[in-house]
Write a structure and sequence with these properties.
Helix content: 40-55%
Oligomer: single chain
CATH architecture: 3-Layer(aba) Sandwich
Number of strands: 7
CATH class: Alpha Beta
Number of helices: 8
Distance between the termini: 30 Å
Strand content: 15-25%
Radius of gyration: 17 Å
Length: 253
Amino acid sequence: MVDLNGRVAFVTGAAQGIGAATVMRLARAGADVAVVDMNLDGAEEVASSIRESGRKAIALRCDVSSSEAVNAAVAQTKSELGPVGVLVNNAGVLRDNYLFKMSDDDWDTVIDTHLRGTFNCTRAAQAHMVEQKWGKIVNVSSVAALGNTAQSNYAAAKAGIQGLTKTHALELGKFNINVNSVAPGFVETAMIRATAKAQGVDFEVYKQRAVDRNPMKRVAQPEDIAGAIALLCSDDASMINGQVIYVAGGPRT
């Protein structure tokens, strides 16, 4: 069983979907948690649920693309909960479009949130981990890192996250800090529902197409991804470092 008693986790994009499932899973494992999101009301709702279960939790509004905002959020977490030992970089947005239609803003928004955000949070949190000589960092990538139509920005960002994962694993391993990435496939979240709507496809039809392609003959729920993340945040995974694990119901190359 994953045991994170005495640890403090900082999870971005945690007001809904994979992030919310992850922060609740880590709290069940004993961690006190910072629920970090641009949607403060949603983050507070998740944090309140965690507090009702007996763990400490704070909700923080943070634009992860801003290093100043990230530094302030990490500092507040240390002040209220303790030094960050677990970081899950999950914050993300979509601005899907074909190459010839994609605007500069579409590109910048996605790259800044996913890639710059992962860098900013890792840079801020690793200082706490180095002091503790213990840390777990999990970056949320995607199968889109392998390429996906109408997602130049998202695919590039998610591939970049895999590069950051491997680089930071090399740099931080000597401090007993593990850095890994999970790369989900189709996960039933509000974000994927919005994608189907933007494409003008009924969600159940969109979902069934994914089910038909998947060797497991189902799609993932946020809790499926949260379980993999929790394992990577535990000492049971102490020799897993610099890896990209596809949590997609089948192999990816």
